[in-house]
Amino acid sequence: MDVFGLTLPSYSWETVAGSMISGVFLGALYALVALGLTIVYGVLHIINFAHGALLMIFMYAVYFLWSAVGLDPYVSLIILIPGGFLAGYALQRGVIGRFSHGRDEITLLVTLGIAIIIENGALFAFSATERQVVVPYDFDGIDLGVTYAVWPEIAALAGSLVVTVAVWLFMTRTDTGRAIQAVAKERRGAELMGIDVDHIYGISFGIGAACVAAAACLLAPTYAVHPQFGYLFVLIAFTVVVLGGMGSFAGALVGGFIIGITEQIGRLYLGESLGLITISATFILILLLRPTGLFGQRQ
Amino acid sequence: MTQSLVKTTRRQLLAGAAATSGVLAAPGILRAQGAPVKLGVVHPVTGFLQFSGSQCRFGAETAIAEINAAGGIKSLGGAQIEAVLGDAQSKPEIGAAEVERFQDEGVHAIVGAFASGICLATTQAAAKHGIPHVVDVGVNDKIVTRGLENTFRFGPGFGVITKAGVQGLIDLNAAADNPVKTCVIVHENTTPFGSFMAGLMKEGLEPAGFEVLEILPHPTPNKDFRNIALKIKELNPDVVIPSHYYNEGVLFLRTLQRQRVSPKVIYSVLGGASSQYRFLGEFPEAAQGVFDCNHWIDPKNEAAQALRAKTEAAGKSFSYEVFLAYTATMFAADAIERAGSPDRAKITEAMAASTWDGHFMPYGPTAMDDGQNTGSQPLVTQIQGEEIEVVAPADFATKPAKFPFA
């Protein structure tokens, strides 16, 4: 098959369809990780460099709940989501908000500092050894004909949809959600209306952390955790956030799927290494056509 | 008082003088015993190779602890070995920078640095300062073919391993009446080892009548192998030959299992996970029947089993990184012992002339040729039940091979 002078390998439709479906599953994971990132950006207007480190540390929590208490990663959601929220809230109110003095550039550096501390702390405490949660249904699932979808993949896909809808409902149907939107749009105005902005910042960061905690539970059955694990997903999650439109939940979800499918098809035809350039190519193309991202709003 | 002086005999006086001189000389001896031999131990203990690097560090530190507990370097009056630890951060340039630091700290020899790319850099940097460097794992043959007099590799390089891997597959196939003919090679291509390996495998297998349907490279780290599994499903080869690091090895073999891709034979060459007890413990189903041509101990050697017990007691997995770094460190210590001096040039000479045979690897007595231990060889293992069995060569085999497995 020749495309723009490039001779590409040809595959059966089953392989191509299987690759696209695997892209949907991979995209769901990207969307999950990106969701927390986009919430924090949408409200706090900061790029949270500690996002990957939080993902990693929550995965350790899932691992230890599984290895010490025998808790299934999906049952851990009950503990990890509120735990992640509280940790995020405390981090924002106790560290980020306190040390940043309201300046975006300092906030950025504080999150970077938190990431370094968490990563090195994990390396010191848990060593570099990868730790894998092993679930009894790891190889079970549904035969889709062209590919086999195992339960951990199906759960991650369902989880990303449920979490996105839940966050969207919270943001649009609750007073706190509307207060978060108000702070995101006009901080001073919200303050004058009696909204406790610092509290809202804490809640926003808490929701972002809760999302990443949910992502950790859904990733744990497939991936082994180690202190550098966060980088595996978070760099692409940044791309997903910008592509979907910064601060947009629907953008994170759709962006995740676009990147996931593009990546898999690119890797199928261009090879596992070269195929990754399709992520950057898609990213540049969409930003050329829509500089604010797919669902982003003009400032 | 006078009486006592008169009673002192000449023999007693000589004995007293000898004792006094012994006491006076003691600080000198104590000083000699107290001067440790500094051994630079550099590995990638952070970054994407951190698991393997940490395993190597554990192996080296265990060897150093054992040597010191057994009385240190006896030819240097029982000098203890002091480990000067370095972290290459999974990057060759950082590995080279760590060697520069070792130079500043006055190390006498270096052991390291796991990955081929890092070893190429660290040996080069060590050569600049004339520091003898024992490569523990790095399988790229360029490491020992650049004419660096300071560089020694105790284990085999990928030329020898691939040749043994190809021959092992041909022999197993012939013994089973040639049930397999087509193959797909899957290898990592971020570091030099995977790409060279794939090329050598293809060159070795095609003349033997195997048809290499496709070579599928992938980066390290790699978070998804579904595309590769789909390609393998479409190509439907008899044998899949994977070659990568641990994490990717586990994910690849699990993905094959998840996607119901079951070739007749999975025959790894330096498979990363394919001969790891940890993988077997965590995913026994996906591990069953997997072959690996890789570094392995002489399974009948008691010292090897003792190291395995010690490693597992420390909560670590007994992997090739551990026993290769352990053996490389023991080789370095033996050379220092033979040199009888902490002088780098003398240690280098002792390494080049070493005939050390006090190890548990299936290599025989050491014989270095241009820095490469010529007797070193890999073994072919297969995961059978709850154990990793050696299936070839026959001299070291613990169980017959199940070929084909699926």
Describe this structure in words.
The complex is a heterodimer of chains A (299) and B (406). Chain A starts with a strand and ends in a 10-residue tail after the last helix. Chain A is mainly alpha-helical. Helices cover 71% and strands 3% of the residues of chain A. The longest helix of chain A is centred in the first third of the chain and has 32 residues, at 13-44. The model of chain A has no long low-confidence stretch (mean pLDDT 90). The radius of gyration of chain A is 20 Å and the shape is globular. The radius of gyration of chain B is 25 Å and the shape is globular. The chains are: A mainly alpha (299), B alpha/beta (406). The A-B interface holds A 11-12, 14-15, 18-19, 22, 25-26, 123, 127-130, 132, 134, 138-139, 141, 143, 147-148, 150, 223-224, 226-228, 232-233, 264, 267-268, 271-273, 276 and B 45-48, 50-51, 53-54, 189-190, 216-219, 221-224, 226-228, 230-231, 233-234, 246-247, 250-251, 254, 257-260, 282-283, 285-286, 316.
The largest sheet of chain A is: 2 strands, antiparallel
Mean pLDDT of chain B: 89
How do the helices and strands follow one another from N- to C-terminus of chain A? EEHHHHEEHHHHHHH
Distinct helical segment count of chain B: 14
Stretches of chain A where pLDDT falls below 50 for ≥5 residues? none
Q: Span between N and C termini of chain B?
A: 96 Å
| Helicity range of chain B | 40-55%
* Portion of residues within helices of chain A: over 70%
Task: Please identify the structural class of chain B as seen in this structure.
Answer: alpha/beta
Largest β sheet strand count, sense and barrel closure of chain B: 7 strands, mixed
Mean pLDDT of chain A, to the nearest integer, reads: 90
